[in-house]
Amino acid sequence: MTALLDPEAVGMGRHGGFTARPAAEGAPAVAGIAGWEHTRFLARCLGGADLVGTVAAGSVAGLGTVFERLRALPGVRVTDTWIRLDLVTPAL
Predict the structure, then answer these.
(1) Three-state SS across the chain?
(2) Burial of 45 (0-12, 13-18, 19+ CB in 10 A)
C-alpha cells in the first residue's frame, strides 16, 4: 500500500525544487536522492535539465541545507534551485 502524506503534517512546511544534470557516474547519487526523506518528487526529463525534483523541509534554512547536500553529490550538477513562497490554487 502506498500513502501520500502532506509534508506540513510532519513539520516540513517549506517547499522548494531543483533541476540537475547527472553525469553517467551520477546514477547512484540520483537513486540516493529518491530515497531522501526530504524528496517529494523526482523525475528524469529532457530539455534544459535531465532531472527535476521537489523537496520539503521545516524551514528555509533547512531547504538550503538540502540544496547544499544536492550540490555536494559527486557526478550531479545542480543547475537551478527555487523556494516556493506560497501555494496558490484556483477558486472553484
Answers:
(1) CCCCCCHHHHCCCEEEEEEEEECHHHHHHHHHHHHCCCEEEEEECCCCCCEEEEEEECCHHHHHHHHHHHHCCCCEEEEEEEEECCCCCCCC
(2) exposed
pTM, two decimals, is: 0.78
- For the stretch 15-69, pLDDT in tens is 999 999 998 888 888 889 999 999 999 999 988 899 999 999 999 999 999 999 9
Q: Read off the C-alpha cell for 60.
A: 528555509
Q: How many CB atoms lie within 10 A of CB 74?
A: 10
Length of the chain: 92
